[in-house]
Amino acid sequence: MKTYLVTGGAGFIGSNFVHYMLKKYNDIKIINIDKLTYAGNLENLKEIEKNPNYSFVQGDICDKETIEKIFEENEIDYLVNFAAESHVDRSIREPEVFAKTNVLGTVTLLNAAKKYWETEDGFKAGKKYLQVSTDEVYGSLGETGYFMETTPLDSHSPYSSSKAGADLMVKAYFDTFKMPVNITRCSNNYGPYQFPEKLIPLIINNCLAKKDLPVYGDGLNIRDWLYVEDHCKAIDMVINDGRLGEVYNVGGHNERTNIYIVKTIIEYVGNNIDSAVTENLIKYVEDRKGHDRRYGIDPTKIKEELGWEPETTFEVGIKKTIQWYLDNKEWMNNITSGQYQNYYEKMYGRN
Ligand code: NAD
Ligand code: TYD
């Protein structure tokens, strides 16, 4: 029975990963450590909280004692690090916490794993540290070309620079100590349980509330969208079969402009829920500082080496996602007018 230490499992991708893994395997154990920042939400895990193969620890990945205690009490096989401050706009306002959690937190985890996994002649067999990173570490693309694993790091925002710093620390533990690691760099994820500060859930929420739909700049920035379950599948494959020390880019060639995304959501909600939701709600607002123009992943390596293919096209995934938020209005309400209301209004009360 393999034991996974998942960090940040109460956030968007982490909680989807916990669900994915417990559905797929009944012979694994998952320990989820999460600080429960504004972005961590135990409601995301309600369905599995009583699963005997799952347990939760509230704690900070920067807290060495808490992390070591988990290693002391459990034989951890895999550490999957999702925990991070993840929102670019926030990183522009408050960079320090990004450096702390994303860089120092990663180092704290690496050190703990090294302490418990290292032996006199290397590392115990079958162990792996997986760092969940982002394509944003590569910077911004022009109109052509894609990010490959060999593309030089050229991050711009405090968020992406903190993630790049973390990636380099993970690489250092492989290069220096031969610690068994992998790094995955994925494009923008979407799907259930995403905090409505990110584009897709924010636009869905504002459509339902008939609030302005803020579009930064000219709306022509491009992101490469990945359905979260396809991402979880990729992480599972990299844990099992990724070559040690390697980076794997994860993306499915789903590039769309932001304005296309906003109009797609308006069309779905307008046609199916409320005909008063129209493009009149779109409000072009001041551009994000240092706004990366285009992201696009070349996923050849993970396809050829591990056989990973995304299963969900953008057209199918976006409908499933909008419908999930429509079917789970209480989840959204608890964020926008419940426990997170003050935070949410301070950050996003643009109307
Ligand atoms: P999220 O913000 O939804 O969740 C982050 C989780 O980490 C939250 O539950 C939060 O409480 C927890 N956390 C934050 N600081 C912590 C700390 N110091 N100690 C313990 N827990 C802490 O983020 P997400 O969108 O699920 O992203 C997960 C990972 O994937 C991040 O590392 C992010 O950089 C990466 N990523 C995300 C995307 C995306 O589109 N969302 C794309 C590429 C990479
Ligand atoms: P976001 O979801 O914050 O992800 P990231 O910045 O990590 O790619 O933003 C996705 C794109 O949408 C990005 O180009 C910024 C843009 N955006 C808006 O136009 N309006 C918004 O209200 C938000 C949150 C983002």
TrEMBL record:
Write out the catalysed reaction: dTDP-alpha-D-glucose = dTDP-4-dehydro-6-deoxy-alpha-D-glucose + H2O
Read off the Pfam families from this record: GDP_Man_Dehyd
For the keyword Electron transport, the answer is: no
Under which EC number(s) is this enzyme classified? Answer: 4.2.1.46
Which residues does the UniProt record annotate as the domain NAD(P)-binding? 5-321
Whether NAD counts among this entry's keywords is yes
| Cofactor(s), by name | NAD(+)
What parts of the sequence cross the membrane?
none
Per UniProt, the enzyme's principal EC class comes to: lyase
Q: Which family does it belong to?
A: Belongs to the NAD(P)-dependent epimerase/dehydratase family. dTDP-glucose dehydratase subfamily.
- The name under which this protein is listed is dTDP-glucose 4,6-dehydratase
Highest taxon of the lineage: Bacteria
User: Which InterPro entries does the record associate with it?
Assistant: dTDP_Gluc_deHydtase (IPR005888), NAD(P)-bd_dom (IPR016040), NAD(P)-bd_dom_sf (IPR036291)
Keyword annotations? Lyase, NAD
Please name the GO terms that the record assigns under molecular function: dTDP-glucose 4,6-dehydratase activity
The record's PANTHER family line, in alphabetical order, gives: DTDP-D-GLUCOSE 4,6-DEHYDRATASE-RELATED (PTHR43000)
Q: Which GO terms describe its biological process?
A: nucleotide-sugar metabolic process
